[in-house]
Amino acid sequence: MDILKELVAKEINRRDFTKLCAAVAAVFGMPKAFSKDIAFAAENAMKKPAVIWLEGQDCAGCSESLLASINPSVAEIVLDTLSIRYHETIMAGSGYVAEKAREDTIKEGGYVLVVEGSIPTADDRFCMIAEKPFREILLETAKNAAVIIAVGSCATFSGGIPGATPSKGRGVTHFIKDKPVINLPSCPLKPSRLVATVMYFLASGKAPEMDKYGRPLAFYSTLLHENCPRRGHFERGEFVTDWNDSGQREYCLLLKGCKGPKTYTDCAQVWWNDGANFCINAGAPCSGCSQPEFYNVFSPLYEKQQTFNIGPNTTVNLDTVGRTMMGVAGAGVIVHGLGRLASKSNDEEE
């Protein structure tokens, strides 16, 4: 099947498709010419690895986020051309038929394994599928995978919100030690990250450059604070102190628990829903969902953090700034001055 015919049927022309491939190359810092390799890989995706998508302790929010991507539906461009053999949320089959599809794909090998949701460590009975512990299913499915991608906060690091429950859920890397895992944390998954990562893998046959937490640097290399649309209010010392004060509606959310100065993510540059919105723009403080500290360390989410970053190598304690921080004009400038004096490496802090 010619993918270009499929794209035309979906009202996506060759020019738009080429633009997408070029964008994927750019986001991973690859030469412009590499976009041709990405296009070739996508056009021949029928011959590429199948997909097994597992769901552990989750709300299916990452699946919903991916399936709801729009204009153009980048999920369609890539995932419609792949063979999704197993996905509990969208597959038509069930019971023994569904499990056989997964088992047959494992025997074939060379597939893309996507994992959504955490894996319980307190007791296997917290998450059982087809009468088997999810932990066993993960280990069984991972052994013949060509690449493993953990999507969403629950499947990465300390297990997101399930990690703070009695199940003590943990991310994929807590169990998989013998092969690399690409972590794409956030709550929910940002579809563009998964699509770009899959396309990169199809074109290069390897994982993109990642940080020490297994996150692609293309998406998780800069602090949210650096590109926050409310950064100007921070610089002027204008902070939300009263949710009911309409005059503070656009102010910095630092004092209301925003984790932006501690969070590495491209959320401020690439918004959800075709660029419609993201947490801070909608008036909600960043919860730090792309960080290993989410959820346990960063809770309660609406309480200010005692320390925060104002740059890639600078950490400041709020007590150092003084109690005049609350809405005093110029406080942001004061913070920067003190931060330079009390600079501390993020790597040391972590």
Keywords for this entry:
5-stranded parallel β-sheet, disordered C terminus, alpha/beta, 15 helices, 2 domains, 350 residues, disordered N terminus, Rossmann fold, Cytochrome-c3 Hydrogenase, Chain A, domain 2, single chain, two-stranded antiparallel ribbon
Oligomer: single chain
Known CATH architecture of the largest domain: 3-Layer(aba) Sandwich
- The pLDDT mean sits at 80
CATH class descriptor name of the largest domain: Alpha Beta
Enumerate the strands of the largest sheet in spatial order, edge to edge or round the barrel: 2-1-3-6-7
**Content of β-strand:** 5-15%
| Number of discrete helical segments | 15
Give the structural class. alpha/beta
- Global morphology: globular
Q: Helix and strand string, N-terminal first? A: HHHEHHEHEEEHEEHHHHHEEHHH
Radius of gyration: 22 Å
Structure overview:
The structure is a single chain. By secondary structure, this protein is an alpha/beta fold. The strands form three sheets. A five-stranded parallel sheet has the order 2-1-3-6-7, sandwiched between helices. It has a two-stranded antiparallel ribbon with strand order 4-5. A two-stranded antiparallel sheet has the order 8-9. A hairpin with a 2-residue loop joins strand 8 and strand 9 (314-317). Helix 2 crosses helix 3 (34-43) and helix 3 (34-43) packs across helix 8. It has two domains: 3-219, 3-Layer(aba) Sandwich (Rossmann fold), CATH 3.40.50; 224-349, Cytochrome-c3 hydrogenase, C-terminal domain (Cytochrome-c3 Hydrogenase, Chain A, domain 2, Irregular), CATH 4.10.480.10. It has helices at residues 3-9, 14-27, 34-43, 61-67, 74-79, 95-108, 134-142, 191-204, 217-220, 224-227, 231-235, 272-275, 318-321, 331-341, 346-349; strands spanning 51-55, 84-87, 111-116, 128-129, 132-133, 145-151, 181-184, 307-311, 314-317. It is globular and about 60 Å long.
